[in-house]
């Protein structure tokens, strides 16, 4: 349905997207996951006609998006990261304005507005000025605008950045319904692993402009199927203990967490004795210990050596 072919964008000497190849089949919900600056916005801006690639192409049902931008733009629902609304107008006036740009009018436009306002849960507040909206409401209205012309696909650039947990939850549930109940294809970018885990059938992990892994959540975590992670909660910071663990060849990865340390070890390698012995030598109190199967966050760390939100 939508695919990129060796898509590349170079800003002066910075390669923001480097030979990106990804695709979405009809009805799929696909996540593009990566830290800030990974190249997600650049990639989806090119996919949605908002930016020209340096080289490569984007195909929409076999037709080049680069060759036919204005024609194909009408078929895509695009939710940019920046809020694109008129603050001095009401939500309803904004929707009428953008609806007309999409070529809608009369009772057809009224019906579509009613539908999208309902979908994003803004019925009761549609006559208020956008400047008085909360950040979460503005984001919801931003999404409503992108849905007005009934696109087959919605492309969303980090739609939950900077909003409260309740609005975030609302948006995630809304996107899930669009995909699962209305059958809309979704491309969702985020640096929140939990969001793509919750929403997406398939995930692309991006870093430094490149796609570094792809698959379902299970496929991606199976990259680490021969490993397990051990979460250790400590009574206080223990920099010496972290160093001691790092010196152990049998411990593959050591990361500091909010409350302690996370270790990645080969599955079934019976490291608990060593872990306890070293803690005792460093006079560190282990408050709790948890052995877990790897998460997408672990996969990212494994592939890049960095945390998603460093
Ligand atoms: N217009 C531009 N001019 C120069 N460099 C740019 C431009 N837009 C993006 N970049 C650079 O390209 C790289 C990728 O940026 P991009 O915004 O695509 O990343 P991202 O994964 O979407 O991150 P974020 O979550 O912060 O938006 C970054 O190094 C960024 O500084």
From TrEMBL:
Entry-linked InterPro entries: AAA+_ATPase, ABC_transporter-like_ATP-bd, ABC_transporter-like_CS, DrrA, DrrA1/2-like_C, P-loop_NTPase
Superkingdom in the source lineage: Bacteria
Organism this protein belongs to: Aquisalibacillus elongatus
Single annotated GO MF: ATP binding
Family membership: Belongs to the ABC transporter superfamily. Drug exporter-1 (DrugE1) (TC 3.A.1.105) family.
Pfam families in alphabetical order: ABC_tran (PF00005), DrrA1-3_C (PF13732)
Membrane topology: Peripheral membrane protein
Cross-referenced SUPFAM superfamilies: P-loop containing nucleoside triphosphate hydrolases
UniProt keyword annotation of Magnesium present: no
Protein name: ABC-2 type transport system ATP-binding protein
Coiled-coil region list: none
Alphabetic keyword roster: ATP-binding, Nucleotide-binding, Transport
Domain ABC transporter: 2-233
A biological process term (GO) from this entry: doxorubicin transport
GO cellular component, one term: plasma membrane
Gene3D superfamilies membership: P-loop containing nucleotide triphosphate hydrolases (3.40.50.300)
ATP-binding is among the record's keywords: yes
Subcellular location(s) per record: Cell membrane
């Amino acid at each position: 349905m939508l695919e990129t072919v060796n898509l590349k964008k170079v800003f002066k000497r910075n390669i923001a997207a480097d030979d990106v190849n990804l695709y979405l089949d009809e009805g799929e919900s696909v996540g593009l996951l990566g830290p800030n600056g990974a190249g997600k916005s650049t990639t989806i801006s090119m996919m949605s006609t908002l930016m020209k690639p340096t080289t490569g192409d984007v195909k929409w049902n076999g037709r080049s998006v680069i060759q036919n931008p204005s024609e194909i733009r009408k078929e895509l629902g695009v939710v940019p990261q920046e809020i694109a609304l008129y603050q001095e107008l009401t939500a309803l006036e904004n929707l009428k304005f953008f609806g007309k740009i999409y070529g809608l009018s009369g009772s057809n436009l009224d019906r579509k507005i009613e539908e999208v306002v309902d979908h994003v849960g803004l019925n009761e507040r549609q006559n208020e000025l956008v400047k008085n909206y909360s950040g979460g409401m503005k984001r919801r209205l931003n999404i409503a605008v992108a849905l007005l012309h009934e696109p087959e696909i919605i492309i969303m650039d980090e739609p939950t950045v900077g909003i409260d947990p309740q609005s975030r939850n609302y948006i995630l549930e809304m996107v899930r319904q669009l995909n699962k109940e209305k059958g809309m294809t979704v491309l969702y970018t985020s640096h929140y692993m939990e969001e793509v885990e919750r929403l997406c059938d398939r995930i692309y992990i991006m870093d430094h402009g490149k796609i570094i892994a792809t698959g379902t959540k299970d496929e991606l975590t199976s990259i680490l199927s021969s490993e397990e992670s051990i979460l250790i909660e400590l009574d206080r910071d223990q920099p010496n203990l972290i160093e001691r663990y790092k010196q152990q060849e049998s411990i593959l990865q050591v990361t500091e967490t909010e409350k302690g340390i996370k270790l990645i070890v080969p599955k079934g390698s019976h490291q608990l004795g060593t872990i306890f012995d070293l803690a005792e030598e460093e006079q560190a109190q282990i408050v709790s210990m948890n052995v877990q199967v790897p998460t997408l966050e672990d996969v990212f760390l494994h592939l890049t050596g960095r945390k998603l939100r460093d």
